[in-house]
Specification:
Oligomer: single chain
Number of domains: 2
Number of strands: 5
Order of helices and strands: HEEEEEHHH
Low-confidence stretches: none
Shape: rod-shaped
Radius of gyration: 31 Å
Distance between the termini: 61 Å
Helix content: 25-40%
Length: about 200
């Protein structure tokens, strides 16, 4: 008697022609609901029970995930499927599909880091540029020649100082993360950025 999990697994098989190790049909159900061997079936054909590994968590900005499928040239013996321990259904073979991560090139990761910095910096640029820049220059000039600033001028300067500080912190964060990447580490690309409110 097979379990419901095993029965579900038997609904996703590949049909292989053994003499050439060629898959004739993909994603077909095994013809017998109980999973037992087919009486009188051509021995040159075998059903491969698909065993697909759960997808791994990864940062697509740093890694590319490729599906690795079973090497069909190895099918001259019975392979064990995790749902069929101890070769309960020894007439079936397993077709394994696993995820294999490959690290992106340094230049690709740096491009993603550049984009992340631009995203953080763009959130800081909420003040209309032309009129505010003019007011900052005017307030700075008044302060430089020793004139007392109005409360509004002081507020504008303080706001710009705060934003400038955040841009500087983002630049420092960028340099630190980039250095870690260049040393072969895998830092969190979203960590440490100053964002606008």
């Amino acid at each position: 008697m097979i379990t419901p999990e095993q029965q579900a697994a038997l609904q996703n098989c590949h049909l292989m022609y053994k003499p050439t190790n060629f898959i004739l049909k993909r994603n077909v159900a095994y013809p017998r609901l109980d999973g037992s061997a087919q009486v009188g079936a051509d021995p040159n054909y075998v059903h491969l029970v698909v065993n697909e590994q759960e997808e791994q968590q990864y940062d697509p900005r740093c890694f590319v995930m490729d599906k690795q499928e079973s090497d069909l040239s190895q099918y001259n013996y019975t392979l064990e499927h995790p749902l069929f321990p101890h070769n309960e259904l020894s007439h079936l073979l397993t077709y394994n599909i696993t995820d294999k991560s490959q690290k992106r090139t340094l230049s690709e990761i740096i491009v993603h880091l550049d984009n992340r910095r631009k995203l953080a910096d763009s959130s800081l640029e909420g003040i209309p540029q032309m009129s505010s820049s003019y007011k900052v220059i005017q307030a700075t000039r008044r302060k430089t020649v020793g004139l007392t600033l109005t409360a509004k001028e002081q507020e504008i300067l303080d706001t710009y100082d705060s934003i400038s500080e955040k841009f500087l912190l983002n630049e420092n964060n960028y340099v630190a993360i980039k250095a870690l990447i260049e040393q072969g580490f895998e830092p969190e690309l979203d960590a440490g950025w100053e964002q606008g409110t």
